[in-house]
Amino acid sequence: MKKNLFLIGLLFSAVSFVNAQEITTPQYAEKVGTKPIQQGNWMIGGSLGSLGYSFEGENFNINVTPRAGYFISDGIAIGLGVNAGLETVKDGDNIWNYGVMPFVRYYFPEGASSTGRFFGQGEIGISGSNGGTSDTSFAFGIGAGYAHFISQNVALEAIAGYNYSKSNASSAQAQNGLGFAVGFQIYLPGKK
Q1: DSSP states of the chain
Q2: Does residue 82 belong to any structural domain of this protein?
Q3: Which of 13, 113, 114, 168 is deepest in the core (most CB within 10 A)?
Q4: Would residue 105 count as lying in a domain?
């Protein structure tokens, strides 16, 4: 009898414990509205994987671009991106790339959802390479992307765009191409 009461008590405790557990599903989106992109907030993050193709040299590149920006008004951020990457050249030596690109980003109110925002971005600065000869170039890029908020302060993003660069060497030709990047941004609230 004691054994049966003990087993019934143990079974009752196990069932109570299992029912008391709250089961949560992974979070894939967060309704944020305009709170992360308000004036005075900061954004830190960047592109972790960036793929591109050059029209002139038939070469492929991959880059990592950390960025930091400040919202000067609701939906408009200015900031700085630093670029580091590798370019593989058909029938040639690989080239290491670098760059410093100030940017401006605008989040469109049209087409926005409670969990995401479309944005446009423009950047202008200098880029360079170190593959046999060291070379510095004027560079600019324009792109459009989408930021999907997975939490109140974190967004995954994808951006596609066009980039252009021209070396300061006298015999240099301009380089241009298309690129696609994925990354994330962390939105930090500013002081109120």
Answers
A1: -HHHHHHHHHHHHHHHHHHHPPP-PPP-----TTGGGSTT-EEEEEEEEEEEEETTT--EEEEEEEEEEEEEETTEEEEEEEEEEEEE-TTS--EEEEEEEEEEEEE-STT--SSEEEEEEEEEEEEEEEESEEEEEEEEEEEEEEEEESSSSEEEEEEEEEEEEEESSTT---EEEEEEEEEEEEEE----
A2: yes
A3: 113
A4: yes
121: domain CATH number? 2.40.160.20
Find the domain containing 145 and state its range: 35-188
The type of residue at 59 is N
Would the pTM count as exceeding 0.85? Answer: no
pLDDT value at 59 more than 80: no
